[in-house]
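Protocol step 4 of 6: structure prediction from sequence.
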Amino acid sequence: MGKDVLYIADRRKKEFTYPIHNHEVYELNFVEHAKGVRRIVGDSNEVIGEYDLVLITSPDLEHVWEQNECTSDDIREITIQFDIDISESGIFARNPFNSMKQMMYEARKGLCFPMDAIMHVYQQLDTLSSVKDGFYAFMQFLTILYELSRCDGARTLASSSYAKVEVSSDSRRIQKVKSYISDHYKDEIRLPQLADIAGMSPSSFSRFFKLHTGRNLSDYIIDLRLGYASRQLVDSTDSIAEIGYGCGFNNLSNFNRIFRKRKGCSPSEFRENYHKTRIIV
């Protein structure tokens, strides 16, 4: 981007043709009138409604909006790519920007905003490309980011293990257990082991884990393994069986069944989708 801070592309089109890609700069992507489009962000694969707004702040997170079943002939897409220093030494580490920095951190896995948030910033998004003065355009964009950071209901898309993002926790016990699972996801993991690490009985620990994470322990372990498996399907040439066994699944049919149930496609289809056309920009 050179000395520029923002790159704004405001397009009206009838179809999505850009291949799956990733890039160094951050991106906020808004899509309007595109019901039926398939949005892929990392190992997340969803069909969107009329409106979609996603923030991505990882250089390694692949993403694409595919035509899929969309029949609209009046699609609007606003792509805003930006380069902002959110390191501890930059201005965005200061108190007024706390909510924005936290949002940027979460968006390393891709962050999808609910309809209320989209409508809240719609007018500013709608007019951003018409602001000719670079300073005022940047101020308007910062306002969009700030308002989004204060909205409720945003959700992350890619799994932490796929996006290579370390998951923090407000509980030291939970963090110790998560670190153990991350280090031993290839092995058989038993509840009593984890309960012992947390210094609790198995039944108490199960309730404690769900209370702090919102998920059952078994679901958490499966999703973590699937995230690692998905990343290897993209990054390696290992066979599907090797990847499944290497990520802690005890047999190939079990790996295929769970993968299809959670991801909506088989491991081979997932790999094929990512290898169709993939570029780094």
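Step 5 (inspection) to follow. The longest helix spans residues 217-235.
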